[in-house]
Write a structure and sequence with these properties.
The chain is of the alpha+beta class. The chain has helices spanning 31-46, 50-53, 192-203, 225-247, 251-262, 329-335, 403-414, 427-434, and strands at 3-4, 10-11, 58-62, 71-77, 89-98, 101-104, 125-128, 133-138, 141-148, 151-165, 168-178, 184-190, 214-215, 265-270, 279-285, 307-315, 320-322, 324-326, 340-343, 348-355, 358-367, 370-380, 384-390, 396-401, 425-426.
Length: 435
């Protein structure tokens, strides 16, 4: 067996499937280029099936601490209890740039005693939050670390176990934190409610970043926004196919069903904020709002739904990010789980929905790669309300208004804007053009 050195020391496998590698260009003055090239070679050398594993070994650029330097995030295959488990992608390495060179950001093992030191081979999840907090999950352990300018600092961690009682699980937590020298120490046993509060306080209303993994083979070869977007659509298309065929084995009878599903999922390019750079929108046919379901609410709520987008990606000139709501995680989660959404010609994104008791219009503003909550209007049989802000816990602050004020505020907000007629393309057409 041959053993290689470098950033990722490894042993070269002898039972590798044949795979035609690409040449990743040597990008001048790019410290991350060497990292990508060596990581790519790691997969080629160590994997028995590089073509399959390259679906999991990918990269992403993201400025974790907001200091203007983007970190390089590398993914790999999640640690598995046994080889029969399904493969899952997970963040494996973080690199940053210091003094013009790339170096790997390591866990602060000096803050742990020998017996408490995390085993990096057993990481099951690696979550990066928008406030620089990083959560590292291992079996029964959840560590919180703070990232700033290339350094990880231990913050707190929880060790938990579950006991089954009356057909349900009860969780017990041990809470650890740093002593006066920064070393990990046991503090106390806490309840599940206290553990939830501790996690929420650490996260400070921030959300986790959405990983937008790109193929290693695209590094240095992809330059334009649409080229990046096509990689995302292709990944979406491939995952759609793989997931579908996992549960539909009879190709002769399922081909028509597959085509129908492909024709009900869409993508489009549209410059939402008019800054000259298109965004990528991913959408599907929305069946939730059936014709006549809200007929008693007309004219406050249109009754028919068609194509509804549920993901937005932006390009900043260097990398692609999934667009997040700012600053509130609550609204970010809400935005991506809403039913009907429209892009308006004034740059607003409008959601409308509701129930037989009320209708709701929620407005978001997209700009500079982020989505900001503007206001929510609710109109019901008993009261009409306006929401323009939330309290420090993310709860809506409601203000009662009249129905005439509802109509006036809605008209002023939309300011005569029309719904944009977006040129949606089906996933099936993408597959037909790129097969």
């Amino acid at each position: 067996e041959e053993t290689t050195e470098g950033l990722f020391p490894h042993t070269v496998a002898t039972d590798r499937k044949q795979y035609t590698a690409v040449e990743i260009p040597d990008v001048p003055n790019d410290p991350y280029c060497r990292v990508i090239r060596e990581y790519y070679q790691l997969v080629l050398d160590e994997s028995s099936d590089a073509q399959d594993d390259l679906n999991y070994f990918k990269y992403m650029l993201y400025d974790i601490d907001g200091d203007g330097t983007k970190e390089l995030l590398l993914s790999g295959i999640k640690a598995r209890e046994n080889p029969e488990e399904n493969k899952n992608i997970i963040l494996k390495h973080i690199f940053t740039i210091k003094d013009g060179s790339a170096y790997e950001v390591k866990l602060p093992t000096d803050q742990f005693s020998e017996e408490d030191r995390p085993d990096l081979t057993k990481i099951t999840n690696f979550t990066v939050y928008t406030n620089g907090l990083i959560a590292v999950s291992m079996k029964r352990n959840l560590y919180y670390l703070r990232y700033k300018q290339g350094t990880l600092t231990y913050v707190k961690d929880l060790v938990y176990k579950a006991s089954e009682t009356d057909n349900s699980y009860e969780y017990h937590y041990k809470y650890y934190g740093p002593d006066e020298n920064g070393k990990r120490q046991f503090i106390e046993e806490i309840s599940e409610a206290d553990a939830i509060n501790l996690r929420q306080n650490l996260q400070q209303g921030s959300g986790w970043i959405e990983y937008v993994w790109l193929p290693l083979e695209s590094y240095g070869r992809v330059k334009q926004a649409r080229d990046y977007y096509y990689l995302i659509v292709k990944d979406y298309y491939d995952r759609f196919l793989n997931s579908y065929y996992k549960f539909h084995k009879d190709e002769s009878t399922d081909k028509k069903a597959l085509e129908d599903n492909m024709n009900g999922n869409f993508y489009a390019f549209y410059d939402i904020d008019g800054n000259g750079t298109e965004e990528l929108l991913i959408a599907r046919t929305e069946y939730l709002w059936g014709s006549g379901y809200f007929s008693t609410r007309d004219p406050y709520l249109p009754v028919e739904r068609g194509v509804v987008f549920y993901e937005i990606y932006s390009f900043d000139g260097e990398s692609v990010q999934k667009v997040k709501c700012i600053p509130s995680y609550r609204w970010d989660h809400f935005f991506y789980n809403l039913g009907g959404r429209d892009v308006l010609t004034n740059g607003l994104i409008r959601y409308y929905g509701g129930s037989p008791e009320y209708v709701s219009y929620i407005y978001f503003k997209y700009s500079d790669g982020g989505i900001e909550f503007i206001k929510e209007l609710l109109c019901g049989e008993e009261k009409t309300q306006l929401v323009t802000e939330t309290d420090d816990k993310g709860n809506n602050i409601y203000k009662d208004i009249t129905k005439s004020e509802f109509d006036r505020i809605k008209a002023e907000t939309e300011d005569g804007a029309k719904m944009v007629d977006i040129d949606w393309q089906t996933l099936k057409s993408f597959g037909d053009k790129n097969s």
